[in-house]
Amino acid sequence: MVKEMVAVMGSKTEEFKEEKEIFLEHIQKSGLRRTAQRDLILEVFLRTEDHLSSEDLYWLVQKEDPNVGQTTVYRTLKLLTEAGLAREVRLGDGRTYYEHHFDHEHHDHMICTECGEVIEFFSAEIEELQDQMAEKFNFKPTHHSLRILGICGECQKLEREQSVASGAQPRVRVKTTLN
Amino acid sequence: MVKEMVAVMGSKTEEFKEEKEIFLEHIQKSGLRRTAQRDLILEVFLRTEDHLSSEDLYWLVQKEDPNVGQTTVYRTLKLLTEAGLAREVRLGDGRTYYEHHFDHEHHDHMICTECGEVIEFFSAEIEELQDQMAEKFNFKPTHHSLRILGICGECQKLEREQSVASGAQPRVRVKTTLN
DNA sequence: TTGATTGCAAAGCATTTGCATGCTA
DNA sequence: TAGCATGCAAATGCTTTGCAATCAA
User: Fold this and answer.
1) CATH number of the domain encompassing residue B11
2) Coil, strand or helix: which one is A83?
């Protein structure tokens, strides 16, 4: 209870100072303008540690200001990406998700095709081998994305339990395709 | 010249025997029907060693039979994927590409964000590390896709040459996004 | 005041679906 | 003959764009 209040209050005031500064700096450098909508969208985005689609974020923002339009959310997420605060992620269902980028380590994703759970992981060895690979082809890498699709531990357990019978539905959250 | 003729004649007759058998088998097992369209689409697909979008393939097929519709190409590519002959690939521009899958080693892609060139590569070490990573998270992997975006050797060279001046346009083929 | 920003509606794209007609098994 | 396949047009889902009104600098 107390923790929640602090979190909410904090986020409305001195939390995410650094990110907000970066955003303002980017806006000014680009000759753009600070607006209430952009502030709110950034605020809600930073407050939510998750993979958010533009629509997800739109609904969260709606709750605090019903006058903000979808378009503005789309446009602001692009802006946040340019500013280095957000990173686009394709999880495989056709839409674009965004995750925090500033002050967050680079990482890759494992995506459960049963329940949609997304596991973040990082492997310095894999990164290293990728760079070696690129060098071998005289290729100068700028970004990369590694996605592993499969079944998470939880869903494997469920599968085992249901292996006898029952018409239970899978807990589908993200509809992923094979690639 | 002779080589080309042989290639063309071959492809119309005894070439790709194995793939065609697999296709027929899949069709029969699934209670589906063999049609002229499906035959032609498979033929053209097999003949083209490249990453093809549904539309790319549609135009190639059009040249040989203008009566084939886009929809059928879409549907047949799905079929080929199910049969294990094709593999869906997302290169990052929003559309779905297909590549040969049967008798082709698994591989990953480096994509040049300047010219769209796609380099295929394979690293057993990376694969191995991925499996280790998955195991660590009790995750049962089924597929994965690794994309490295960057600048290919050719485009690096061009960049160097143009580094002084000139308003030359990049040779954009595939419009890729960051992730 | 000026030009960036917003939100709505409309447009774009790639892909999928409904359905009457055509064809395979 | 039954019912899968086809191709057109229309629908879908996500995202972008045009534009008049609004607002920050």
Assistant:
1) 1.10.10.10
2) coil
From CA B152, how far away is CA B111, in angstroms rounded?
8
Question: Is the minimum distance from the CB of A101 to strand C below 7 Å?
Answer: no
Residue A35 CB in 7 A reach of strand D: yes
> For residue B97, which of B61, B60, B56, B69 has the smallest C-alpha distance?
B56
**Which residues of chain A does B151 touch, with a Cβ-Cβ cutoff of 8 Å?**
139-140, 142
pTM of the shown model: 0.80
CA A39 to C1' C1 (Å) is: 25
Instruction: Please count the other Cβ atoms lying within 10 Å of the Cβ belonging to residue A129.
Output: 18
> What's the CA A78/C1' C20 distance, rounded, in angstroms?
45
Residue A148 and residue B144: Cβ atoms within 8 Å?
A: yes
Of the candidates A89, A155, A157, A86, the one whose C-alpha atom is nearest the C-alpha of residue A120 is A89
Q: A121-159 pLDDT, tens per residue?
A: 999 999 999 999 999 999 999 999 999 999 999 999 988
User: A7 and A23 share a domain?
Assistant: yes
